[in-house]
């Protein structure tokens, strides 16, 4: 009987234990693959999330909060700053491009962002829209590809926004005793419902957080609330400096003056990535535990096989099979089970990434690619097979050392 046929027969003879071992390996590999894809997506999304804008100016507060809200559309803005700040920034010789941004409203949970159309040319170059054209007048919008896909919007559709960054499930759920607040919020709601947006264009898939936002003119918030010239404010100013030295000079000039802060975009993103790395270390410990349990499962499976197969191995030795044949029969069984678990784990990991991609992108702006194969996949495969081989060596070596007569008599 060939070694391969013997291995298959032995695995099928102990179907339940073999299946349990395969499942343990598959779940461990799938978890590692999903973790790897997620971590890589976070790093890539963070690096290209702010484009050429190395500096952002906004209201005093958390720099991380300012950057996350401005470029990743996560969380609330730190506040508003005077419109005059934009004019000061644009007049500075150290500035290549500067764009004002206004936020604070949403449509079905997707943020409505007011920004000059030049932002898209500066950040994404000459990429064409998927449909339609850029907005020119107040009330016209272009929407991200994910927004269009999720809500089924098309060029020419109209809609009304809502106040706040999250769609309220129940606008009327107000406690008694707050009549003035209720009247104010009722006025806000009426103002937003009476202001209509028109979809002028749809952005192509950009693989950034801009895919899940609605963009319009900077003055949309002023038009909705009917603000006069002296009351007009903006949320942030996105700055593309001429040089890194210019960015430093701008930060020194604007940071800490009149409730305004200037933040290095890359520095704030690095802090977020450091926090992610801390969480990855904890998950790494959990992963190591899963690998250890999978190795124990393989070991126990082969130990049980040795106990059941002692007489069979003794008979094979008496028939003239070499020690190497016996040793290979047990190690190949462990490697076969490990390899099947590895293949299933890779498929499950990518299938999990496919199922979670929309949820991750909607909640955190993480664009995970379920079809991406990285260099770490080869390391995962090599590591899994190595663990399977090491777990197989002990039981195989035990059978290898015993004399044929001792094996048969036992």
TrEMBL record:
Segments forming domain ABC3 transporter permease C-terminal: 285-404
Span of domain MacB-like periplasmic core: 18-239
InterPro entries linked: ABC-4/HrtB_transporter (IPR051125), ABC3_permease_C (IPR003838), MacB_PCD (IPR025857)
Transmembrane segments: 282-304, 325-348, 378-400
Protein topology in the membrane: Multi-pass membrane protein
Gene Ontology CC terms: plasma membrane
Chief site of localization: membrane
Coiled coil: none
UniProt keyword terms in alphabetical order: Cell membrane, Membrane, Transmembrane, Transmembrane helix
Localization, UniProt: Cell membrane
Disordered as annotated region, ranges: 172-191
Record-stated family: Belongs to the ABC-4 integral membrane protein family. HrtB subfamily.
Record PANTHER family: ABC TRANSPORTER PERMEASE (PTHR43738:SF2), ABC TRANSPORTER, MEMBRANE PROTEIN (PTHR43738)
Quaternary organization: The complex is composed of two ATP-binding proteins (HrtA), two transmembrane proteins (HrtB) and a solute-binding protein.
Described function: Part of the ABC transporter complex hrt involved in hemin import. Responsible for the translocation of the substrate across the membrane.
Name of this chain's protein: Putative hemin transport system permease protein HrtB
